[in-house]
Specification:
The structure holds 2 protein chains of 2 kinds. Chain A is α+β, with helices and mostly antiparallel strands. Chain A has helices at residues 30-48, 52-76, 224-228, 257-274, 293-305, and strands at residues 17-18, 25-28, 79-83, 94-103, 109-116, 122-126, 131-139, 144-155, 162-176, 190-191, 207-212, 234-238, 245-249, 277-281, 286-290. In chain A, the strands form 4 sheets. A 5-stranded antiparallel beta sheet of chain A has the order 2-9-8-5-6. In chain A, strand 14 and strand 15 (286-290) form a beta hairpin. In chain A, helix 1 runs antiparallel to helix 2 (52-76) and helix 4 runs antiparallel to helix 5 (293-305). Chain A is elongated, with a radius of gyration of 29 Å. By secondary structure, chain B is an alpha+beta fold. Helix content of chain B is 47%, strand content 12%. Chain B is built from 22 helices and 18 strands. Chain B is elongated and about 120 Å long. The model of chain B has no long low-confidence stretch (mean pLDDT 82). Classes of the chains: A alpha+beta, B alpha+beta. Chains A and B meet through helix 1, helix 2, strand 5 and strand 6 of A and helix 5, helix 6, helix 7 and helix 18 of B.
Chain lengths: 311, 668
């Protein structure tokens, strides 16, 4: 495993990073320093009044405090982490990166705290030879690519007197979609497209029939009564040749570029919810019409990646 | 260099279980003080803690800042009221306990718990500065383990049971013990205190340097130990167990005081003496400087000083348990007193009883020999109806006359006083010696335990040719006293004192035995651990060979030793590298190793079935056990996923497989 010049190792080919001996640092906490001072006072007092029992207790406190160092260190040592890409958030929300933790030395770990940048801290335990998964959240203020960056894993177990920590520079990133506007947008222009087999005169709202459920079918289209009658999941089909297809275009929305992106984002979300077939046309690219989750993601990604400053 | 960090979050809120645990620990830590603090303060503390804990269960109860302020003020007022000050050891420790109890009210975040735990640990050591009893130490050790367990629990995300946390804390303490031992043995001790904050005398009991009718009989109400003595050889017989305390010379008509004649610069000499008796003593603190040697002490080694009247005095008042090594002579002849001492030993108050004077005159007409006169006085007590009682009637204006002719009832101090005065009236120099007599032998510990109830007073007269001679009038009137312990049954006015007999029913004797064992343990504890001082440390260092090290050398050794222990622990905690082999494989290898020791070395090409065949052929006695293991192993190795016997059974069988080794036989 090569170490980058800054001291942060790159993940292995499988993405797991191992916190070896040299990666884990241990320093006293503020409480630890206070504890040391208290031990010193206790020792001085016991020496002064020649209380051997007091001295024994003071030394026991001191020794326990010192021996916490190996315990705190080993709480982090040889831990393996793997950061996975987060589900894309919207700008203004938080990006949640799943981090998998595992260990293979038969050592139980407790009070592991992970935090990235100015995100919140998440804490977990890890039993010996097991794996666990936590979500590390960071704020996603702007659209575009968001790198997790510095991930700090630390622990103060067992006595809170010492802090062991390790820092990783994670290249894992996610895409932040623009924040959709709140107000519903005016419905985009619908364009009629002639169906291949000609116009059967069936409109977009006409009931065509049932078909088996395909993953991705919007829930509004499912025949719940059929399910209740234990017929399984079936989807109602609507429309036909005059399928409603809409184009969401850059020109159709107003405002500065960021506002336009936000509005388009709302339109994409609404269109998907309504089950429409839609395409996206931006100044730098065009996405042909489609439906479904993957299509929505493509469109939102295009919005997210739209270069800033481009008029 | 310091980049600006995001402001620290306020810390995670505290789980109620942790608050409860901490509250209980604070109560436990303060428990030993319940015996020493005024009951009002103990009750107040307990109440403060319990209210906080109750608020956990019933969240409706008030826990606001106002209430906290009121509690604080109330507590401080209470301490002030009882101790009249906020300084000093007792007030200080009460205030600290109060602060600790009220910290619980302020404990909402993890950081608060950390601080509270630290305060609690400090509190433990504060208590141990004065009282180092074994019981307190053992109890507070448990509290310490509890505190460590609570800290460990706090830093977990998923709570475990308290049992698991305690186990972890105990493990940490066990790991810490070598380092504690190293520090304790090597850490340099102070030669003189750094500061002189007096911890105050806490109601120390013991003999005073005055005696009047009633003083000793008051003291003997206490069963508190005065000191313990271990003899190098056999202990002296009970009749010789006189422990010398203050010697009183001056009588003012009611009270005897020490007022020594002349300056006691010259240590006294013994003209002749018998064989010496060696002993080792541990004295309980009594706030004075007397050391209570066995009558009569030889010139002491160390810091003690022998006074002209054979009192042994320490350099500083005894405020803690003090060891003392002594030598005494049971048979002795002192040198003669100088004229000033003689005069003092014949001093009489102006209003001495005329009737007593007349009585003595009649004796002097009959006898000339001073020893005979003494015998006459003793005969008076023995033959006339005198009573030895703990509760004599009060003596009025002239104690001597009252005692000799009216009440005729008294305790050792009355008799000793009367006898000494009679002797002075007869022209024989005499003085009163107070101290202790007797002592209870602890067969478990092999030492004599002398308690306050063994306090005693006797007389010394000077006879030409024999020096100062001890005369104990109590031996004339109540000889059992010399042989046995006093029974503390409160008698009525004038009733004779009773002495304990041997025996008692089984339960009593068992309890007595247990008492002996505990006291012996406690004494050993004091002798070995608590008396490890600078002197002993130097001896130990010389013995190991580190004697030449100065302060710095010792310090370096300590640091090096600590580092070594830390590194050892780090290495030990690392865990095992993951074994690439399957667990079943590992067990199988172990099984093969044991078979090899039984004379069946494994063949690399041999599978488990064939191995089973070979075992049946070569060691039929092992065949059933080995067969079961191999069968289980095969079924596990080649199982379908999700099925098959579990590893535990296989592990257990293999663990129990211990074949008798035999010489390897060659296969046919």
């Amino acid at each position: 495993m090569r170490e980058a010049a800054s001291g942060h190792a790159d993940p292995t080919a499988t993405g797991w990073v191992r916190l070896g001996l040299r990666r884990v640092y241990v320093l006293p906490t503020g409480q630890g320093l206070l504890y040391g001072l208290a031990c010193l006072l206790m020792t001085l007092g016991s020496l002064n009044y020649m209380s051997n029992l007091g001295l024994l207790f003071s030394f026991l406190c001191l020794a326990a405090g010192l021996l916490a160092i190996p315990h705190t260190w080993r709480n982090l040592a040889y831990l393996q982490l793997r950061v996975e890409p987060a589900a894309p958030p919207f700008a203004g929300d938080q990006a949640e990166f799943p981090v998998r933790l595992t260990e293979d030395r038969g050592l139980g770990r407790a009070g592991l705290r992970l935090r990235a940048r100015d995100g919140a801290e998440v804490s977990t335990d890890l039993a010996a030879r097991e794996e666990c998964r936590v979500l590390v959240k960071i704020p996603a203020p702007r659209r575009g690519a968001l790198r997790l960056g510095r991930l700090r894993i630390s622990s103060r177990f067992p006595l809170g007197l010492w802090r062991a920590w390790s820092e990783l520079d994670c290249p894992v990133q996610t895409l932040v979609y623009p924040r959709p506007t709140e107000a519903p947008q005016a419905p985009p222009l619908a364009l009629f497209v002639r169906a291949e087999s000609g116009d059967r005169g069936v409109g977009a709202d006409d009931f065509l029939g049932l078909r088996g459920y395909r993953p991705g079918d919007p829930p509004r289209r499912l025949d719940w009564k059929a399910l209740a009658r234990e017929r399984g999941l079936v989807t109602r089909q609507f429309g036909g040749d005059r399928a409603e297809q809409v184009w969401l275009t850059w020109e159709a929305v107003s405002g500065d570029p960021e506002t336009r992106l936000s509005r388009l984002c709302r339109q994409v979300l609404d269109a998907t919810r309504a089950g429409q077939t839609y395409g996206l046309r931006l100044p730098d690219r065009e996405i042909p019409p489609g439906t479904g989750e993957a299509h929505q993601h493509r469109c939102l990604a295009a919005l997210a990646r739209y270069p800033a400053g481009h008029v | 260099m310091f980049k600006r960090r995001a402001p620290r979050p306020p810390g995670r809120p505290l789980a109620p279980g942790l608050t409860l645990a901490m509250g209980l620990l604070v109560l436990a830590a303060a428990l030993p003080l319940a015996w020493e603090l005024p009951p009002a303060i103990s009750a107040y503390l307990a109440l403060a803690v319990l209210m906080r804990l109750a608020a956990l269960r019933y969240p409706g109860l008030p826990t606001g800042r106002l209430l906290l302020l009121l509690l604080t003020l109330g507590g401080v007022a209470l301490v002030l009221g009882h101790f009249r000050t906020l300084l000093g050891y007792e007030a200080g420790i009460a205030l600290f306990a109060l602060m600790l109890a009220l910290k619980l009210w302020e404990m909402t975040r993890e950081r608060d718990l950390q601080v509270a735990a630290l305060l609690a640990l400090f509190f433990l050591v504060m208590q141990l500065l004065l009282d180092q009893s074994m019981y307190r130490g053992a109890w507070l050790l448990l509290v310490l383990v509890g505190i460590l367990a609570v800290l460990g629990a706090q830093h977990r995300q998923v709570p475990r049971g308290w049992r698991a946390e305690l186990r972890q804390a105990l493990a940490l303490v066990a790991q810490a013990l070598p380092l504690v031992l190293l520090l304790f043995l090597l850490f340099p001790r102070l030669s003189a205190p750094l500061w002189k904050l007096d911890l105050g005398k806490r109601g120390l009991t013991g003999l005073g340097d005055q005696m009047e009718p009633g003083s000793i009989s008051e003291l003997i109400q206490s069963e508190e130990p005065a000191f313990r003595v271990e003899f190098s050889d056999a202990p002296p017989p009970p009749a010789q167990r006189y422990w010398r305390g203050p010697v009183l010379w001056h009588y003012d008509g009611r009270r005897w005081t020490a007022a020594k004649p002349g300056r006691q610069e010259q240590p006294p000499r013994l003209v002749s003496h018998g064989p010496p008796i060696q002993y080792r003593m541990i004295l309980e603190p009594h706030g004075k400087t007397w050391l209570f040697p066995l009558d009569l002490p030889a010139a002491p080694a160390g810091e003690a000083r022998l006074g002209a009247d054979f009192q042994l005095l320490a350099r500083r008042p005894l405020l803690r348990k003090t060891p003392h090594q002594g030598t005494s002579y049971l048979e002795y002849r002192t040198e003669d007193p100088d004229p000033e001492q003689s005069r003092a030993a014949l001093q009489l108050p102006p209003n001495i009883s005329p009737r007593a004077r007349d009585l003595v005159e009649t004796w002097r007409h009959a006898e000339t020999d001073p020893a005979a006169l003494a015998r006459r006085a003793l005969a008076l007590f023995r033959d006339e109806p005198f009573i030895y009682t703990l509760k004599p009637p009060l003596l009025l204006d002239d104690p001597l006359e009252d005692f000799l002719f009216r009440t005729r009832a008294g305790f050792c101090e009355h008799y000793a006083s009367a006898f000494s005065l009679l002797m002075r009236l007869a022209g024989i120099p005499s003085r009163v010696v107070t101290g202790y007599q007797g002592g209870e032998f602890n067969p478990v510990g092999g030492y004599l335990l002398v308690r306050q109830l063994d306090a005693h007073a006797w007389s010394e007269i000077w006879l030409a040719g024999r020096g100062w001679v001890r005369v104990d009038p109590t031996a004339a009137i109540a000889p059992e006293r010399i042989e046995r312990r006093l029974d503390l049954e409160p008698g009525d006015l004038g009733e004779p004192a009773r002495f304990t007999g041997a025996g008692g029913w089984l339960g009593q004797r068992l309890a007595q035995r247990l008492g002996f064992a505990l006291d012996a343990l406690n004494t050993r504890w004091h002798l070995w651990v608590l008396n490890y001082d600078r002197e002993r440390q130097n001896r130990l260092l010389d013995w190991i060979g580190l004697g030449g090290l100065g302060r710095h050398g010792l310090g370096l050794t300590l640091v090096a030793g600590s580092l070594a222990l830390l590194i050892l622990l780090t290495l030990g905690l690392r865990g095992r590298r993951p074994d690439p082999r399957e667990p079943a494989q590992i067990l199988y290898q172990r099984f093969l190793a044991r078979l090899a020791r039984a004379g069946i070395p494994p063949r690399p090409e041999e599978g488990p079935r064939d191995l089973g065949e070979r075992v049946r052929r070569l060691r039929p006695d092992l065949a059933p056990e080995a067969g079961a293991i191999l069968d289980l192993y095969i079924r596990h190795r080649y199982r379908k996923p999700g099925q098959g016997p579990d590893l535990e059974r296989l592990a257990r069988l293999i663990r129990g497989f211990r074949p008798r080794p035999s010489a390897p036989t060659s296969d046919p």
